Amino acid sequence: MEWDPAQYARDAAFVPALGAAAVEWLRPQPGERILDLGCGDGALTVKLRDAGCDVVGVDASAAQAAAAMARGLDARCCDGEALKFGAEFDAVFSNAALHWMKNPGAVLDGVARALKPGGRFAGEFGGRGNAARVVAALYQSLAARGIDGDEYNPWFFPAEKEYAALLAEHGFTVERMALLPRPTPLPGDLAQWLNTFATPFLAALPAGQRAGFTAEVRRALTQHLRRPDGVWHVDYMRLRFTARRAFGK
Ligand code: BEZ
What we know:
- This protein is of the alpha/beta class.
- Helices cover 37% and strands 24% of the residues.
- The protein has a seven-stranded mixed sheet, with helices on both faces.
- Strand 2 (54-59), helix 5 (62-69) and strand 3 form a beta-alpha-beta unit.
- The two termini are 32 Å apart.
- The structure holds benzoic acid (BEZ).
């Protein structure tokens, strides 16, 4: 997934803003060395630095990593499924990024390797049922065109038990986990949200058909997601957790 930092800052600034609750679960301490996995443009990474932490941000998007560097952060472009750090972080943090990584086992291998023994992994991402109405409408409109949505779905939205089991398999002890419904108000129209977040689905279609497709999905969702005051709320479901890497793993 390639991101446009200017578009992200305009249409998705609520993502790092709403990540503050996940930072509270992390409880960053001054002097800790922390890896922000999927740091985006660094809007939340800056908060960790301001809390006195020594932070490294990584993002698979070169443009987003560059935007984070422009904030003066140590940010690197790197695939979250192929982390190469070795036992150097007190904590790994991730907000709104893990659901873009469809190989969670590879992610957890890298996170476990990156942590010092006893280090913690804390974060938040889309859990089971996240944006379920949007996903259903995307699948339905693709199916109407003879396309299987599964082939284009970029998201991993696990249930609590599924993610807890994956963490355990990778040597983590889950300390806290919750699946939280969080209907999320959008700063603009659902069409902008679709053009920012659902581009892998739009890529299933020739460029000339995408605007019509987006309008169709928007129409199907109006009665469910657009409130009487005109504000769109996407049916987010967040999986928030903290886990600790066992000593000796
Ligand atoms: C997100 O990246 O925050 C996101 C992606 C898909 C659905 C909802 C949110």
